[in-house]
Amino acid sequence: MRHQTKMERTHATSENRAPSAGASETAKNEIDARLITAAVALSMSDVDEQDFDSMIAMYGEEDEQREILIKKSREILKLAKQAIFALHRRDVDQCQRNIKHCRKLVAETQPITEGFPALRFLGIYVGALEELAEAEIFFSFISERRLPRFASLHPLRVEEYLGGLMDFTGELNRFAVLRAVEQDLETVSLCRDFVNKIHEKMLLLDLRNSPLRRKYDTLKYTEKKLESLCYELQMGIRLKGFLPPSMTLEPEPMSKSDAEEKEEGK
């Protein structure tokens, strides 16, 4: 029997090892594939599809409710402004109807703001509530000569009540001018004293740089205007009916036929 040379033995050993190396490479590839599959499955499990879908639904619902709240806020703003103008025309019944309608709309918004608390501070909604507060305060002054209780204007916040109160003083100045034209010194003086009391109480607040602070600044100018108005009216009465130019109404224009009739009457 012939003995294998060293070279032959080495070649035979290499041939025997070759299949083993290929098998190990295949096994390694299979392990890598399983690891990749497991990693993908793990990454997919990090995103809970059901939870994400519920968030999308909640976002859509909040956006839908926001649009509803904006629409109702516009209605409240319009009705409250009309209520204020009705009071200037001395149409108290129309004012009451508008305020009642506003309260109904505010009640309809309650479920929205309770379900989505962030919408409670929506700018247009806050502005609508301040406008409603202004109308309520103006009506209370005309009918009862006092401010309405804060609790009676639920769900208004303190800032919204005070914001409406500051706006009310501007309307009170306009109301006083109309009464001054009628030489109603008592009512004009009442308006001045009312604003003075409001200013006195507002001085107790530590107001920061905010919309309420800017509205408070206008209160001081309104107070000065009312004081000047009272002074001018008192002087006019003392001068036997003389009215300063600021309180004198221009005569209505007459048609040609009216002028001729007036001339014939003379």
TrEMBL record:
Coiled coil: none
Species this chain originates from: Toxoplasma gondii
One Pfam family in the UniProt entry: Translin
Biased composition (Basic and acidic residues): 1-14, 253-266
PANTHER family hit by this protein: TRANSLIN AND TRANSLIN ASSOCIATED PROTEIN X
Highest taxon of the lineage: Eukaryota
Protein name as catalogued: Translin family protein
Disordered as annotated region, ranges: 1-27, 244-266
An MF annotation (GO) of this entry: sequence-specific DNA binding
Gene3D superfamilies tied to this protein: 1.20.58.2140
CDD domains xrefs: TRAX
